[in-house]
Design goal:
Layout: H1 2-12, H2 15-20, E1 26-28, E2 31-34, E3 46-49, E4 54-57, E5 63-64, H3 66-74, H4 78-88, H5 101-128, H6 134-142, H7 147-152, E6 156-158, H8 164-169, H9 174-179, E7 183-186, E8 189-192, E9 197-203, E10 209-216, E11 225-227, E12 240-241, H10 243-246, E13 253-257, H11 260-268, E14 274-277, H12 284-291, E15 296-299, H13 305-320, E16 324-327, H14 336-353, E17 356-357, H15 358-367, H16 375-390, H17 396-410, H18 414-445, H19 449-468, H20 472-477, H21 486-500, H22 507-512, H23 517-524, H24 534-545, H25 548-564, H26 567-586
Parallel strand pairs: 13-14, 13-15, 15-16
Antiparallel strand pairs: 1-2, 2-3, 3-4, 4-5, 6-9, 7-8, 9-10, 10-11, 12-14, 16-17
This protein binds zinc ion.
Zinc ion binds near residues 36, 38, 39 and 59.
């Protein structure tokens, strides 16, 4: 039974360990805090509670237990995430049976897409070595790629007017072929989007082909490069080219480059820790991916202005996600591919050794825009330095260091800088805090009547779960009739059944049964706060049961039942209302 697996897994893994694999956590009081991995923010509003084994972000509202966290951050289905955690906890589980129908259908589609990509991969690779496609082989030679290297990276070729679609149609449904994103329909005919292109298969970290990149072999048409669109198994912002090989490198760091050719050329020279971003934007997901294997990253993007800007942004993202980031600048070559061909491996490695710490790189970039001998420019420089250099640094020691540096560059007294910066930052912090507070208040008061009733039910359910295992009287005090919202009522019933079967349902396990994102957010928001004593919990239960919202709902239900002529229900509701009223007067 899947519930048993969930119980075992949640009892054995600690959510603090799980989250720490992706985000650096900082202890604040009894909880842990971090920058939210699910939305962009500068002040941390993402919390993890070790006692309840849950997480919640007050910025974007996401919340849940360890399974939800892995689902979200790895983009997995429930069963897949459970499997990952079961492996981590060294629990042997047979997952062949108990998947939900939705999970099963999705897993099957993913499997078929992977198999289809593998078939395409083999097809493209075969084509590269055919006599009729000699132009492609010539192009590879021209770019200085050796045969072993082409094999290692699985390079291939996609000829014009090929019959790939027809071949695939014998084995796969039209739906799956369409979902692969490899074909484009034009005038009722299906064309491969990579026709006439050299093929770079894109592997995931398990060495499965999940997408393709294609480059034209004569420069007669545009665009030069084309990638697979995002599909069920492929997302550009979550994949790094070459990571399947680079993850096993013995080096302590990764070198991040922009293009397929950069990755391939450097690997060919024996630099085996190189990965490429597909398109120039590096994302937070990429940081998580890199951080799974190593703590240090050297950025080596193109030397043009676009590359410099990308270095600036990417450096920030990597640094804010706790990675040690350095920047390499290559002179007299437009990219690493050209550089290593012109100057060789040793020159490249020397450059890497002299790579600059990312913050120093940023300072160099910013200061090059100002003439610091003029006071108005100096003032503007200080402002930009505050915002782009000092603000993002959360480590006090590091910040101190860079205040000293600013003082050296500008000849302004260190204390004066510190004073001005603290003033600046406090104003900014206050503004952010008040915005967040406003958002929360707004959310609360914006609840519709329906949502308020639901919130009432959720609060009741959460107290029940917290106490049902500890107190028999609380276990008996709550019944199905106490819930107004249908889905919460169902949730309650299934939890009650599990408790009756002797399972210890913890708070974080309760969350496993919740599908609704809004309910999850509510349940993890700590607004449903715990109660110290059984008496206090009982009192809260009574209050929730007799709450005005509930009365409102009961009255409305009764009116509806009257309209329908459902006398039995009317009687039942009347009795409930009377009971609540009597109880209230009795208090
Ligand atoms: Zn968030």
């Amino acid at each position: 039974m899947l519930e048993r697996v969930v119980e075992q897994v949640l009892n054995k893994v600690d959510i603090v360990d799980v989250v720490s694999m992706y985000v650096p956590l900082k202890k604040v009081g009894v909880n842990f805090r971090a920058l939210c991995p699910f939305h962009q923010e500068r002040t941390p509003s993402f919390y993890v509670s070790p006692s309840k084994q849950i997480f919640h972000c007050f910025g974007c509202g996401v919340g849940g237990n360890a399974i939800h966290f892995v689902m979200r951050i790895e983009n997995l289905t429930f069963t897949e995430a459970l499997k990952v955690l079961a492996e981590k906890a060294k629990i042997d589980v047979d997952f062949s049976q108990p998947q939900s129908a939705k999970d099963r259908a999705l897993a099957k589609q993913k499997e078929e897409l992977i198999s289809l990509h593998h078939d395409c991969f083999e097809y493209f690779q075969r084509q590269l070595y055919l006599r009729e496609n000699i132009d492609a082989a010539r192009y590879i030679l021209k770019r200085g790629i050796r045969k072993e290297t082409a094999k290692q990276f699985g390079l291939g070729f996609c000829p014009e007017n090929n019959n790939l679609y027809e071949l695939l149609a014998k084995k796969y449904s039209k739906e799956i072929i369409d979902k692969s994103g490899i074909f484009i329909e034009r005038n009722g005919k299906n064309y491969c989007r990579f026709e006439g292109r050299l093929i770079f298969p894109i592997f995931d970290t398990m060495n499965r082909v999940i997408g393709f990149g294609g480059r034209i072999i004569d420069d007669s048409r545009a665009p030069k490069y084309m990638n697979s669109p995002d599909t069920l198994i492929f997302s550009k912002s979550k994949v790094l080219y070459g990571l399947n090989i680079a993850k096993s490198s013995k080096e302590k760091d990764f070198v991040v480059v922009e293009g397929y050719m950069d990755v391939i050329s450097l690997h060919q020279e024996g630099i085996d820790n190189v990965v490429g971003v597909l398109g120039t934007a590096l994302t937070q997901d990429h940081s998580f991916l890199l951080r799974r294997y190593k703590n240090e990253v050297v950025l080596c993007l193109d030397s043009d202005q676009a590359g410099k800007n990308a270095t600036f942004r990417s450096g920030d993202i990597l640094y804010q996600n706790g990675l040690m980031v350095k920047v390499m600048e290559l002179e007299n070559a437009k990219d690493p591919d050209e550089y290593i061909k012109k100057f060789g491996k040793d020159a490249f490695l020397l450059k890497k050794q002299n790579a600059m710490f990312v913050i120093d790189f940023k300072i160099k970039q910013i200061s090059s825009n100002y003439d610091l001998s003029k006071s108005d420019q100096k003032i503007r420089f200080v402002r930009e330095y505050f915002e782009k250099i000092l603000m993002p640094i959360s480590n006090e020691v590091e910040r101190q260091e860079y205040i000293k540096k600013l003082s050296q560059i500008t000849q302004i007294d260190e204390d004066a800088i510190l004073k001005e910066f603290t003033k600046n930052e406090n104003i900014k912090l206050k503004r952010i805090e008040s915005i967040q507070h406003f958002k929360q208040v707004q959310q609360k008061s914006n609840l519709t009547e329906e949502e308020r009733i639901k919130k009432n039910d959720i609060d009741l359910l959460s107290i029940y779960v917290e106490w049902a295992n500890k107190s028999e009287s609380i276990r008996n005090a709550v019944t199905e009739d106490d819930f107004c919202t249908e889905d919460i009522k169902i949730l309650f019933s299934s939890i009650k059944n599990l408790i009756n079967e002797g399972m210890e349902v913890t708070y974080s396990m309760l969350l496993t049964f919740v599908d609704d994102e809004k309910v999850l957010s509510e349940l993890t928001s700590f607004s449903s706060k715990g109660f110290e004593t059984e008496e206090a919990a009982k009192r809260a239960i009574e209050e929730l049961k007799t709450n005005n919202n509930r009365m409102l709902w009961l009255r409305r239900e009764m009116l509806e039942a009257q309209k329908r002529g459902d006398n039995e229900k009317v009687l039942k509701l009347q009795m409930l209302i009377r009971k609540i009223k009597d109880g209230k007067e009795g208090i």
